[in-house]
Amino acid sequence: MRIVGGERRGLTLRAPAGHTTRPTADRTRQALFDMLLHAPWGGRDLFGNAAVLDVFAGTGALGLEALSRGAPHATFMEKDPAARAAIAANIAAYRAESRTRLLNADATRPPRAPTPHAIAFLDPPYAQDLVPRALDALARQGWLTPDALIVAETGTDEPPLAIENPLADRRFGAARITIWRNAG
């Protein structure tokens, strides 16, 4: 697993041993970030001033990919100790300590946000209906700007997220990526 684009393209990322995390595949991440770059609602400036939130962060690959592509700051939210250790190692390998924050937090019961984030990546364990629960909790605790771009990964065998007018809804192997604007 590696960063697939931007200033740190090719940087190898560490994943925790075992099956507690399911990192987004490099090819899926490449397709996702290409979509974000080329979509009419995205573009090269999408990450320029956006604080990014990587929820159920696992390895931190999505947040680190956003940093590599110009995001000034990323916050990683993860409750699994092995995953947090992998994220910390990946942040150190990237040399991004000053541009990141790693929280030991359950996304369905997050702490109060110090500042809202304009882009949120949610890649929870599949088939547990965690995206709606986490989004509700994150919104209540002030983690999302009113028009935040939400990017959620779920399994293709799960029912689609109940999102009216998603900006994108694509399948990549076993993953389904749904993107929409926060309605808060």
From TrEMBL:
GO terms (BP aspect): rRNA methylation
Any one GO MF annotation of this record: methyltransferase activity
Keywords linked to the UniProt accession: Methyltransferase, Transferase
Keyword field contains Membrane: no
InterPro entries: RNA_MeTrfase_RsmD, SAM-dependent_MTases_sf
Disordered as annotated region, ranges: 1-24
Domain of life from the UniProt record: Bacteria
Biased composition (Basic and acidic residues): 1-10
Protein's recorded name: 16S rRNA (Guanine(966)-N(2))-methyltransferase RsmD
Originating species: Neoasaia chiangmaiensis
